[in-house]
Amino acid sequence: MINGMHAILYSPDADADRALLADILRSNTVDAGGGWLIFALPPAEIAVHPTDGALAQELYLMCDDIEGTVATLAERGVTFEGGISDQGWGLLTTIRLPGGGTLGLYEPRHPVAAG
User: Fold this and answer.
1) CATH number belonging to domain 14-43+56-108
2) Pairing of strands 102-108, 37-39
3) Which of 48, 73, 99, 110 could be cross-linked to 13 through a Cys-Cys bond (beta carbons 3.0 to 4.6 Å apart)?
4) What is the largest CA-CA distance in the chain?
5) For the chain, where are the alpha helices, taking DSSP H only?
6) What is the three-class DSSP state of 108?
7) pTM, whole model, 2 decimals?
8) Across the 115 residues of the chain, what is the mean pLDDT of every consecutive 10-residue run?
């Protein structure tokens, strides 16, 4: 039986990205050994979208109030790319990770499967 999901972000600056995730998530962590932190996440959901192009995976954090969440995270030094855009299905922005990667953040307007 599936009891959870484990996502991995690869980064050239894993320590900085871990520190940012610790500040964003403020969740429980475990050390898998040697400083390899694993962060607890809120409930998750997964979707499959069709594509005729390249195969890809995307990772998004969800929130109830994107403007409030962005303001709080910005006060903590989190950098965002662009503003908040209205995608119809939700409000979306992008968090810039210190290692150069990105992480989506959105406030869904669609029914949510998790929780």
Assistant:
1) 3.10.180.10
2) unpaired
3) 99
4) 43
5) 14-25, 66-75
6) strand
7) 0.87
8) 87 94 93 90 92 91 96 96 95 96 94 83
End-to-end CA distance of the chain: 18
Angstrom distances, CA of residue 72 to CA of 1, 87, 104: 37, 22, 16
Tokens of 110: 């669609």
* 85, 79 Cβ separation under 8 angstroms: no
Q: Are 37 and 15 in contact (CB under 8 A)?
A: no
Q: Which of 42, 86, 78 is nearest to 62 (CA)?
A: 42
- State residue 35's pLDDT score: 85
CA distance 66 to 69: 5
Alpha-carbon span 79 to 73, nearest angstrom: 8
Closest by CA to 91, choosing from 100, 102, 83, 101, is 83
d(CA 45, CA 62): 10
